[in-house]
Amino acid sequence: MNVFSWDEKLDRILHQQEWMIKALQIIHGKEIKIMATLEDLVADVAEEETVGDSVVTLLHGIKTQLDDVLKNAKLTPGQQAQVDAVFSKMESNKAKLAQAVIDNTDAAPTDTTVGGGGTDTTAGGTVPAG
Description:
mainly alpha, two-stranded antiparallel ribbon
């Protein structure tokens, strides 16, 4: 029969407690890193949105300026074809940009609560997650 003294039991409990504290410190460090990464991602998406909006504004501005310049111009059929090709290419580029944004944007998550919401049943009972 293996009988431990109270001192041995306390030492084992303290050792386990120290191990759990170290594990929690590691988890906390990883949580901080994940949050920093998430903040970087949010900033990158905001920057990309600004850049995308700027490109669309630029394309609209160029088209408006060309429309104004060419409004009363007398163009040969060849020149008109070149102008039409420029406008067509601009619209094509704008469509590619819009499609790239759509293709690389994930659908919005259905659960937007902090911590993911839901229920945690890992301890054998039912405890609200978060």
